[in-house]
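@channel anyone free to eyeball this complex?
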Amino acid sequence: MTMNGAQIFVESLKKEGVKVIFGLPGGVVLKIFDVLYDYKDPALVLTRHEQGAMHMAEGYAKATGKPGVVLVTSGPGMTNTVTGLADAYMDSVPLVVFTGQVSTSLIGNDAFQEADNVGISRPCTKYNYLVKDVNDLAQTIKEAFYIATTGRPGPVLVDIPKDVSMNQADFNYPEKVYIRGYNPTYEGHKWQIKQAADAILKARRPIFYVGGGTVFSNAFEELKELAELTQIPVDMTLMALGSFPATHPLSLGMLGMHGSYASNMAIHHSDLIMAIGSRFDDRVTGKVSEFAPHAKIIHIDIDPTSIQKIMNVDIPIVGDVKCVLRELNQHLRTSVDGRRKEELKPWWNQIDEWQKKHPLTYKQDKNQKIKPQYLIDRLYQLTRDQSPIVATDVGQHQMWAAQHFKLDHPRTWLTSGGLGTMGFGFPAALGAQRAFPGRLVLAIVGDGSFQMNLQELATAMDYHLPVKIAIVNNGHHGMVRQWQDLFYNSRYSASILSNCPDYVKLADAYGAIGLRATKPDEVDGVIQEALKIDKPVLIDFQVDPQENCYPMIPAGGANNEMILENPPELQKKEKETAGVKKAGNGEKEGVLTA
Amino acid sequence: MEHIISVMVENKFGALSRVAGLFSGRGFNIDSLSVGPTMDPTVSMMTLVTRGDDRIVEQIIKQLNKLIDVIKVTDLTEGAFVARETVLIKISAKGEDRAEALRITDIFRARVIDSTPTTYTIEITGDTNKIEAIINLLKPLGIKDLVRTGRIAIGREEIKTAVQEKGPDKKRLELK
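replying in thread with the prediction:
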């Protein structure tokens, strides 16, 4: 059947089962938008900025496991997607991003709104295409979805010149793809898996170091079975949160720079690490030469380049986490016996001791400002029965959320890990809400981060996406200020956000609901009120601006060298400022244990 | 250690920049790179000369394999191979130097491919030692211009070369 390029584009997306496209129009993609005008499926979500569209698509993809789809115009439309592409590439998020391009005859002429889209996106995409002939369009779209969603997922960009979207061709959507240079390995090497099983049974201080790959391969059941079979403690990376229940007795929570004391001590003292879909990121290992000095390492990863990149690995297994764990569990099911629990008892005793020694705690004095940890804890306690999807931005609030918001369900944690993109959280929450209209979606954001993409409040209103946005408002780029406190003599160069908008009025201006809490005893009421409103709600939680996030491993430090509290000179300063504010004497302490 | 890596790539626009971009983006060394067509019009062959310790070279090979346009990567240095480079050298040659230039050309089994009253252009093909040697001998005469192809290499047939091929094909995801 003969169609124009724009129709082929939309019909191809239908064949791929695409339900939502996040995008923004412009000159060279008008033909495609014109065709989309007649379709309800796939539906278009018009965002207010292309970066917003990218993070929405990422949020959609992370929450559903399906690829996120974006459609933008050429030139600035495309360049505005670069941060999202780099973010998705670092965090292995499956996206297919369609960009407009000037007509083929104009390419290279510095035409209006022309940019070298494939050149710009090459280092931050898994693969990219420039479609020069409408006859190649359907095949290219098929390949793009195939590459984005298989192997180690990632973003794929397809650049469509204006004339390609107008020209006619026969539409035949291919059934299968074969790309001779791309054959990801799913099943792990059987002998290697057997070796891993043997090592697990011999180890006395073993630990699982679980990463985002577990989420992408949907290996939640397999991981749970493995952990329960072997009684081995589970450390999770920032990207893996939710893949193993945080409240499970075998979970030690997050490890790394702001990980729990027990999780970092455990990995440091372990004699066997099994890395499951994780990549020994510098925020996890700290100083590589001192990382887990006594441990033998098993590494499961679908991307061979992740293995042996940072650490020497004793048992490498290239494969999909789900496939490998399934096979590993088969070995262990027959060989694990009751003695195993007994053998690991000294190890667990040691871990329990670490957990008791330095749990994740905070102190909330009811006459002082809201402690951000208290706020996260209350958000968690008041919403946990609804298993919300939680999106965050990047910075202190992100780490506090990772520490104190206990996620028990997979694909409920949307955060920017590898690239560390401020401005990610709010649009990501909107993408997830678009995928799951009935679910509670929380965006826990910093005041600095939120202001990077707040224009999407209009999108939230347009498409009735009742996300609850909790601004952890400390009037600073908090993590920057924390580093300045610790390493730059508290010289707050460019970290104070002195002119903040009135967030309640801001919400009002967009037609959303704005709420505010300034004291600890207002927190619960405001959260409960927000949960009752079927609209986007922006809550301005004005928190203690000087609070720092601990534990912390200084960049380049070893995992057993955590800073657990403010150093003495900062404590002194903290007391001085607190003394001024303290009015009453009715102290109340809330202590949260990990 | 120096490694000569032969990379079979799809003959598509952008394939070269993907390979070159990989080296610049990840800070890998690249001493020379040469590209040409093969018997199969859809495939090009690149020969890369690079340096690094074992871990870096392992990463280079894995990262090359990860590129979707790359079909096959072979580290020729792991087995027996022959490598050659072609150089065009324009020297000034006047008076008695002309005879000396011809003698050197003869000794190295090089060829004069262009001549003017004051210059010769010499073509030489050989391994790195031979090329360095003739360049050193011609230097005193005055080298006006010099162009090198970069090395190309091929595995020797009688001794099996270590080939790092991409993972097995059989476990590809079944598509709808």
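from a first look: Residues 54-66 of chain B form the longest helix (13 residues).
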